[in-house]
Design brief:
With 385 residues, the protein is mainly α. It folds into 2 domains: 268 residues, Cytochrome Bc1 Complex, Chain C (Up-down Bundle), CATH 1.20.810.10; 105 residues, no CATH class. Helix content is 69%, strand content 2%. The protein is built from 13 helices and 2 strands, in the order αβαααααααβααααα. It has a two-stranded antiparallel sheet. Helix 3 packs across helix 4. The chain is globular. The chain starts with a helix and ends with a helix. The mean pLDDT is 87. Belongs to the cytochrome b family. It holds the Pfam family Cytochrome_B. Its main location: mitochondrion. Keywords: Electron transport, Heme, Iron, Membrane, Metal-binding, Mitochondrion, Mitochondrion inner membrane, Respiratory chain, Transmembrane, Transmembrane helix, Transport.
Length: 385
């Protein structure tokens, strides 16, 4: 009974009495969208399990049976598949909004770090789910990505064999990936609850970049009404996408059954992996490519600890605002290069945009350090005067 009261109290504090900054705009709705899509993914995933077979010889056929023979099975499957894309869209937008408004600095460092960990688990979960239809692109993407573990010194091949549960991607691999794909969304849900708890502890950020907003209002009814209408519109967009262009973000080769004896001409993961895939491919050395891939996530994780600027929000720093916009544009270009063939000029552009991706963090740190230096010099001059 005590646990129920605590849970109800947490929900009440989260949705009703939580003091929110009065300056929040619609850019702060992406977290609500992400929670909505997570719930959608868990519910649709539970229903999809009822019709899915984890046998490698039946997995593709079970998905086709769901699509063709089960009433509204096509809608359920497309809702889950496209829901993953929308999940990444809103989480990426949530991340870029945090970069622009400086929402990751103290006292929200742990909040930002928990969000990056959620993103990492999303990437792993989505990759595992991409393998489950056992189509041609699913099979070969699993083979290529799991082989990256072979770069680990001494134990690389053992790790690969453990991931495969054998000596090649086969039925035991499919069973392992299915189990993990079913488990990880609930781990993500637990981390989301932790993320919300950390948000309550540190307080919401705001467009002005203040550590804590001076003017605050109760979350209900002011923001619950705003969020309700925007969530309804967001769900309508998802349903429109699923109903009219459900295959727009997928790869046609994944509607071909997996064939271990025929390698696709061009192996391409889902679009939300493409920026990281471009970073991996831009470096000729396989080990250094994997290191760069991991570093692209680690740098995001360490970003709050690189600097503590005097002015947080980019709306007061025109150069930083342009730098953040260029960073977003660079990530989009990386995504385009990730789906392009390994030939010029894409090889050169991939290496250039990879350098620019990591250069962003160093430039950001340098500018923050110069800001502090100039402010300290001005204070010293004022004290001398």
């Amino acid at each position: 009974m005590r646990h129920i009261k605590r849970s109800l109290g947490f929900i009440y504090d989260t949705a009703i009495t939580y003091p929110a900054p009065i300056t929040l705009n619609y850019n702060y709705n992406f977290g609500v969208y992400a929670l909505t899509v997570l719930a959608l993914q868990i519910v649709t995933g539970i229903f999809l399990v009822m019709f899915y077979s984890t046998n490698a010889s039946l997995a593709f056929l079970s998905v086709e049976h769901l699509m063709r023979d089960v009433p509204y099975g096509w809608f359920l499957r497309y809702l889950h598949a496209n829901g993953a894309s929308f999940f990444f869209i809103v989480v990426y937008a949530h991340l870029f909004r945090g970069l622009y408004y400086g929402s990751y600095f103290y006292p929200r460092r742990l909040l930002w770090c928990s969000g990056v960990v959620i993103l990492l688990l999303m990437i792993i979960t989505a990759f595992l789910g991409y393998v489950l239809p056992w189509g041609q692109m699913s099979y070969w993407a699993a083979t290529v990505i799991t082989n990256l573990a072979s770069t680990v010194p001494f134990f690389g091949q053992k790790i690969v064999n453990w991931l495969w549960s054998g000596f090649s991607v086969d039925n035991p691999t499919l069973n392992k990936f299915f189990s993990l794909h079913y488990l990880l969304p609930f781990v993500i849900l637990a981390l989301v609850l932790l993320h919300v708890a950390l948000l309550h502890q540190a307080g919401s950020s705001n467009p002005n970049g203040w550590k804590r907003s001076i003017d605050e209002i109760p979350f209900h009814p002011y923001y619950t009404i705003k969020d309700f209408f925007s969530v309804i519109l967001f769900i309508a967009i998802i349903i429109f996408f699923v109903s009219f262009i459900p295959n727009h973000l997928g790869h046609p080769d994944n509607y071909i059954p997996a064939n271990p004896d025929q390698t696709p001409e061009h192996i391409v993961p889902e679009w939300y992996f493409l920026p990281f895939y471009a970073i991996l491919r831009s470096i000729p050395d396989k080990l250094l490519g994997v290191v760069a891939l991991l570093a692209s996530i680690i740098f995001l994780l360490l970003l709050p600890f690189l600097d503590r600027p005097l002015i947080r929000s980019s709306i007061y720093k025109p150069f930083i605002a342009k730098l953040n916009i260029l960073f977003i544009a660079n990530c989009i270009i990386l995504g385009y290069i990730g789906q392009s063939p390994l030939e010029e000029p894409f090889l050169f552009l991939g290496r250039l945009t990879t350098v620019l991706y990591f250069l962003y963090f160093f430039v950001f740190f340098a500018i923050g350090s110069l800001d502090k230096l100039f402010v300290s010099l001005i204070k010293n001059q004022g004290n001398k005067a």
